[in-house]
Amino acid sequence: MSPAKRRTLFERLAALDPHPKSELEYSTPFELLVSVVLSAQATDKGVNKATAKLYRVASTPAAIIKLGVDGLIPYISSIGLYRNKAKNVVALSEIIVREHDGEVPRTREALEKLPGVGRKTANVVLNVAFGEPTIAVDTHIFRVANRTGLAPGKDPFEVEQRLVKAVPPPFVQHAHHWLILHGRYTCVARVPKCPECAIRDLCAYPRKTKSKAA
Which of 34, 101, 155, 190 is least surrounded, with the fewest CB atoms within 10 Å of its CB? Predict the structure, then answer.
């Protein structure tokens, strides 16, 4: 995809949603971190339903530690892999209290040392909580980047590196949200909604779906 097409692509996505936001519900960087850890192989809607009750009881590292793994599990048992996630959330809370004075660290290196936090999660926290121009590549962004030809790559890291180079500077801050929402609601996995896609003419996907009337 040419630089001109890439700019046009983001101009159109920005016009549709000038101020995109995460669909996870949170009030603090710590709540965001916990929600992103819980969202692995789970829906944002499912995570929000669980954390709405959890954060009323425990919304700080100290409170999570006090709750403990056994106390945390009932709040998140509706989420996949909840036992392992409960262990990770309590463990990362302990590290944040012990090594970071109770505050979520603001560097990728420190974030990735936390249990349950990989590169994608760190990128989300850096971007959403701290305004860093990072791009977290999940399954939706991976699909959109490859399908459209925006930043094709064989794995999430390669796609991320290509996106960092491909996204015009004015759009880097919100690129993650625009692409994930586009993949979640328009450029969906099984039957992409090409007829209603705002960037259809810029997309390199050879098997675009047609409207029923076509």
Answer: 190
